[in-house]
Each structure stands twice: as C-alpha cells, then as structure tokens.
Amino acid sequence: MNKGNVLKKEKVLYLIRLSDMLKQGFTLLEAIQLLNDQFPQLSKKELKIKVIGLVKDTGQLHEVLKFLNYPQVILSQIYFGEQYGNLIETVDHSILYLRKIEQVKERFIKTIQYPTLLFCIFFMLLAAVNQTIIPQFSEIYESMNVEISTSLKVITTIFSYLPTTIFTLFLSLVLILLIIYLNYSSKDVSKRISFSNKIPLINKYISMYHSYRISRDFSFFIQNGITLNKIIEIYMMQTKDSFLKYIGLSINKSMEKGESFPDAIKKLGCFEEHLIHYIKHGENKSKLDMELHYFSVFMLDKLEKTFIKHLKWIQPIVFGILALLIITLYLIIILPMLQMVEGIK
User: Fold this and answer.
1) In the predicted model, is pLDDT for residue 174 greater than 90?
2) 76-80, 111-115, 180-184, 211-215: lowest mean pLDDT where?
3) Using CB atoms within 10 A as the burial measure, which of 28, 219, 236, 341 is most buried?
4) C-alpha to C-alpha distance for 1 and 6, rounded to whole angstroms
5) Other C-beta atoms within 10 Å of 308: how many?
6) Is 26 left (phi over 0), alpha (psi -120 to 50) or beta?
7) Hey, which of 2-6, 14-18, 337-341 has the most confident mean pLDDT?
8) How far apart are CA 275 and CA 291, in angstroms?
9) What is the DSSP string of 5-41?
10) How far apart are CA 265 and CA 255, in angstroms?
11) pLDDT value, residue 316
C-alpha cells in the first residue's frame, strides 16, 4: 500500500488535533478513530482498518506515525515519549519541530519559484531565437555577402549550444548526486560521519541537526528521572535508528575507558562545540536537563536562521546570472542588425 503522501501537508495539523484530544482525556484509540473521520485522506476503508489495527495491536503511536510516513526524528521522539516519559509533551515538541521544517520549506519554495519561472521563460525565448531569428540573420548575411564578426560568431555559437549543455550538466549533476547518496547510504554510521565532515557547509547543518537531536533526547530522559547509564543503554538497544545505536555504543566504549561524558561526546566529532560546553556547565551546576533543553531550542532556531540566511543569497546570484544571460541574448539580436547597417554603408 502506498502511504508516502497520505497526509501530505497536514502532518502538523494531525498532531495538533491528536494532542488536543489526548489532553481532553481521550484514549489513543478513541483519538485515532476520530482523526480518521476528520481527515479525508484517512477515510478510505483500508486505511482506517490499518491505522486502527496498529493501535489495537501495538498500542503505540509511533507505529501509526511510521505508517503515515512521519520523519525518523519524530518517530524516535514519540517512541521515547511513550516508553519513558510524557507522550503529550513529546507530541507538542514534535509539532514545534515540524512547524519549523514546514516554515523553512515554504520559505525555500518562495525563494526559488520566481527565479525558476524566469529561467524557464528565458530558455523558451532562447529556443525561439535559435530556431527563428539566428537562422534568418545567417541567410541575410549570406545574401548580402556580409562577413559575421568573430565576437558575434562566438556568442551565437555559445547560445546555440547552451540549452543542450545546461540540460546535460543538470542530468550529470543529478546522476552524480544519486551515486553519492547511494554510496553514502551503504556506509556504516562512522564512515557517514567522516564523509559528511569533509563537505563544507553541509557538515555544519548535519552537526547542528545531530546536536539538536541528542540534546533534546538527553534533556527529555533526564527530566523523567532516567540516569545517564540507562540513557546510553536505551541508545545501544535501538534497532530502528542506526545513528542513535552508534552514539550509544561509542559513548559507552569511551566511558568504560574512563573518559568523561563530555569528552565521549566530543570524541564522536559530529556535534557542535557549544554542546560540549553546555554539558560541562550543566553537570557543574547540576542542571544538565535544563541546560540541554535550552540548547535544543537554541539549536533548532539556529538551524532555521542559518538556512534562511543562506537562502537570501540565492535570489541575488540567480538574478545576476539571469541578467547577464538576457543582456547577451539582447546582443545576439541587436548586433547582427548593427553589423548589417555597417555592411550597407
């Protein structure tokens, strides 16, 4: 059954309504049954049976969300909330996270949609010029025995091959990225971390994301009275999230050698340096749970602001390239006319 886009853009709304119902005292089964009637996507009989069956068989919300294709970070948070803490609080935090992601997605789409439209219009104009205007100018030149200037020949040749060249480069780029992704996915976690650390800019986003996840999880566990050793044990037992399992095994190995918790985290090399500072400060003040909570909020905001900051560079760069191409296209049209006038004189 294809479940990839069951809720589409309503994943946040689904969790908001679920949280409201749980706060009003509804059981998970009652809430899920009511939600099935509120969302047309879930009104199909086979989907209703599957979702309700998951709740009856497992009693676990994360299983339902997994079926509805929620991201892994949300599934992990909900799982931990069900097993070790306050489910409603965890759902509310998941709503905050998803809202941030949706805002960033919307901002990204708004940023690129206008430049993309302009590029499409430009290439349609370019195709029209290549198919109509340039051949006509060539025929006029031949009939008038006017020699085309070298600069005009170069510009015309470049633009005649430009659509094909860009299309080929685009397909090549997609193929290269696909190969890199498949190669990355096949590596174990330690090699993925080493690989991602070598990629400029991307490594910053990955380290911020990992720092957010770990600080959020550890804060949640500590607030619910779970000891550090138990948290590491929970991580080591993970079967659905290979990254968390690797983190647990690595920290446990380091601490068995006598290293402190902050040093074990630092040794992994996939977290923000500020996380280490917050952990040390929290341990010294006996407020590690609160320190990590505030850090997770800070890191989520930093992720959003950093992405928006980089987005602001996209439009000026794209518009600059587009302006250069339009000016060149204008020269292709106007220069032959000027050259013909010179030839007539």
Assistant:
1) yes
2) 111-115
3) 219
4) 11
5) 14
6) beta
7) 14-18
8) 10
9) TSSGGGHHHHHHHHHHHHHTT--HHHHHHHHHHH-GG
10) 10
11) 86
